[in-house]
Amino acid sequence: MQTLPTLTTSNTTAEQPTFETTIKRRKTRPVKVGNVTIGGGYPVVVQSMINEDTLDIDGSVAAIRRLHEIGCEIVRVTVPSMAHAKVMAEIKQKLIKTYQDVPIVADVHHNGMKIALEVAKHIEKVRINPGLYVFEKPNSNRSEYTKAEFDDIGEKIRETLEPLVVSLRDQGKAMRIGVNHGSLAERMLFTYGDTPEGMVESALEFIRICESLDFRNLVISMKASRVPVMVAAYRLMAKRLDELGMDYPLHLGVTEAGDGEYGRIKSTAGIATLLADGIGDTIRVSLTESPEKEIPVCYSILQALGLRKTMVEYVACPSCGRTLFNLEEVLHKVREATKHLTGLDIAVMGCIVNGPGEMADADYGYVGKTPGYISLYRGREEIRKVPEAQGVEELINLIKTDGRWVEP
């Protein structure tokens, strides 16, 4: 008889193989952004970006507050001009006066040294794009970059970046080096092609300049609109950083993911794949929708992977011919009654076959055991059987009995 070979791992005993069921995150240095820490073993940080014009002070303050109140821990704003950079001082002051001090990161593009230097006075983190920070005018007749030409632009980048690095270093603030696949500099495209390698080398050039100036409060991103490119770029970035002894945290995101169900699936495919590899310290889901709709997707990704517990985890079977009640309707009722709770696992199972066994890890179970009745469980233990019409009410009473209920 043909048999499969015995599976072994590095930590396997002779009697029983063991497998990791929790994600082991890549070790990174902690980078402070105001009162939030990215990396260093801290929980994965959730970010988003307001879409208000920051010259609208009241609108921007309100938008930042809306995001922060629903769990966005760092908020990004765009500063396309010196006027936008200067007004950030008023936005910060008004936030502190009317709400609280929210960590803010400012987006700077296109020859933005003066803008970056101004905005760095007022907020906790500056994001720059290596492909745009020193603009290289494309030459349609060019066939290659010589080493001298490549190095000459590299020196211009250093001259332009150094004042910002020194300012952030001396203030104890942070920088995100945010590479985008769609905006690689021309010399990187000629040298490495439109590839993840070109993205990584673009970031490393800026990292080395920062390190030469003794500045290491860095977060790195490798965003792309195509998931396979994004995943490959981040994996290569993590590999190269580890090889070079650089322990910088990574900011994950699929840029321009779109909207609706597909936008959420696309973002999840990229972000969750990397997080499951242990790669990633902060995330943003980029949707073509109101920013508030990005935050629930972030937390759902983190909760599904066991990286953060911010809401109730619902375990429910898909329903079949054995189901003894309208599973979709009952799950909706249970969710509406308990969705404000945190840290609980609640199972809703349609029959005894999928009941106690499949929901073994749940804190509470709601199981159709006999027609017209519901069996309520605490863990694996059946506590009571109640009429179906009273099922949700009695589930709440059981949670209250255990002292784990809070009012909505």
From TrEMBL:
InterPro entries: Dihydropteroate_synth-like_sf, IspG_bac, IspG_bac-typ, IspG_C, IspG_TIM, NO2/SO3_Rdtase_4Fe4S_sf
Top EC category: oxidoreductase
IspG TIM-barrel domain: residues covered: 28-299
Pfam families named among the record's database cross-references: GcpE, GcpE_C
Protein's GO biological process: isopentenyl diphosphate biosynthetic process, methylerythritol 4-phosphate pathway; terpenoid biosynthetic process
Entry cofactors: [4Fe-4S] cluster
Keywords noted in UniProt: 4Fe-4S, Iron, Iron-sulfur, Isoprene biosynthesis, Metal-binding, Oxidoreductase
Pathway where it operates: Isoprenoid biosynthesis; isopentenyl diphosphate biosynthesis via DXP pathway; isopentenyl diphosphate from 1-deoxy-D-xylulose 5-phosphate: step 5/6
Binding site for [4Fe-4S] cluster: C317, C320, C351, E358
Similarity-based family: Belongs to the IspG family.
UniProt protein name: 4-hydroxy-3-methylbut-2-en-1-yl diphosphate synthase (ferredoxin)
Gene: ispG
